Amino acid sequence: MSARGAAVLAAGAAVAWSNAVLPRLARRYGWGRDARSAATLGFCVADAALARSAVPTVPGVAVGLALAGGGLALVEPVARDAPSNRMKWAFVDIPLGTALPEELLFRGTLTPALQAAFGRPAGAVAGPLTFGLWHVGAARAAHDPVFPTIVVTTAFGAVLDTLARRTRRWWPGFVVHWALNAGGVILSSGSGISSPGRRNP
Fold first, then answer.
1. Nearest CA-CA partner of 116 in 5, 13, 17, 12
2. DSSP code for 2
3. Which one of 14, 23, 39, 67 has the lowest number of neighbouring Cβ atoms within 10 Å?
4. Host H or E run for residue 108
């Protein structure tokens, strides 16, 4: 059993969930924003537990890489319903449906697991990159260029990872993540950055 197998498997599962699994579940069962948020929170809690477990190295790494590749190859944008209440979106949907699950998984568990398994330099790259790849489907849904979105969200993930490492807490990143996205919603014409259908990082 190895921490490496678990960390890579959890990272690959995250990429597959966000880009391929969740969109298909949402389309099949007609999930709206609240249902997608609840499902993502449940997934992130389960995936965080997986990252902390022990999985044989070779199968874990192989399946994790296959999941990541499959998730990117089969990416399907989620149909984004425009928010009917911008304040609810900023103060309920973003903190509970975006910032909380993502910070619990990435800053709270996944990047530390990757750093513990592969060393701080490698983990400090792999964690933010996984966070960037998590947003490919979101970029497609918002009709944004995919590669720049990966670059921006990877850089944002690296900043939040640094904050988590220096404070030794995941929740400061949650506050920053929430504040950035909610501030964009309040200041813009209906989204975290520019358009009503955009998913927040």
1. 5
2. B
3. 39
4. none
In angstroms, the CA 39 to CA 42 distance is 5
Q: Which of 102, 99, 106 is nearest to 181 (CA)?
A: 99
- Please state the pTM of the whole predicted model: 0.90
**CB distance 45 to 79 below 8 Å:** no
The closest of 1, 22, 20 to 98, measured between CA atoms, is 22
* Cβ-based neighbour number of residue 169 at 10 Å: 13
pLDDT of residue 86: 80
**Contact by Cβ (8 Å): 96, 40:** no
What are the tokens at 91? 């103060």
Report the pLDDT value the prediction gives residue 1, as an integer from 0 to 100: 65
**CA 89 to CA 87: how far, in whole Å?**
5
Q: CB 60: neighbour CB atoms within 10 A? A: 25
pLDDT in the model for residue 193: 36
